[in-house]
Design brief:
mainly alpha, single chain, rod-shaped
C-alpha cells in the first residue's frame, strides 16, 4: 500500500526511472545489433532504431526528473510564502492592537508585494 501511495505522489520520478531503463535497454540492443557487423549499411538501422530511440527516452527521463524537482521546489516556496503571510498577519494584528496604527503598519511589513 505504501508503494502505491508513493507511486501516486511521485509519478513523474517513477516515470523517469522507467523511461531511463527503457532507454538504456534500447541503447544496449542497438549496440548489440550494430556490433555484429562491420558493414556500415547494416549498422545504420540499429543506430536509428536503438540509438536515437534510447537517447530520446533517456532525455525524456531527465526532463521528467527535473520536472519533479521543480515541483518540489515550488511546493517548498509555497509553504514558506504561507508561513511569511501568517507571520505578517500576526505582526500587523499585534501592532494595530498595541499602538493604533491600523493598516498603516501593514505596508512596511508586506513581503514581496505592493498594495
Amino acid at each position: 500500500m505504501e508503494f502505491l501511495t508513493w507511486l501516486r505522489t511521485q509519478w513523474d520520478r517513477a516515470g523517469a526511472v522507467g523511461l531511463a531503463l527503457l532507454g538504456l535497454v534500447a541503447l544496449l540492443l542497438g549496440w548489440l545489433g550494430a556490433s555484429d557487423s562491420p558493414h556500415l549499411a547494416v549498422q545504420i538501422p540499429y543506430f536509428i532504431s536503438g540509438g536515437l530511440t534510447g537517447i530520446f527516452l533517456v532525455g525524456s527521463a531527465a526532463a521528467l526528473w527535473l520536472s519533479a524537482d521543480m515541483r518540489d521546489e515550488w511546493r517548498e516556496l509555497r509553504r514558506l510564502r504561507v508561513l511569511l503571510e501568517e507571520e505578517r498577519a500576526e505582526r500587523v494584528q499585534e501592532r494595530s492592537g498595541s499602538n493604533g496604527l491600523g493598516d498603516a503598519g501593514e505596508r512596511e511589513l508586506t513581503v514581496g508585494r505592493t498594495r
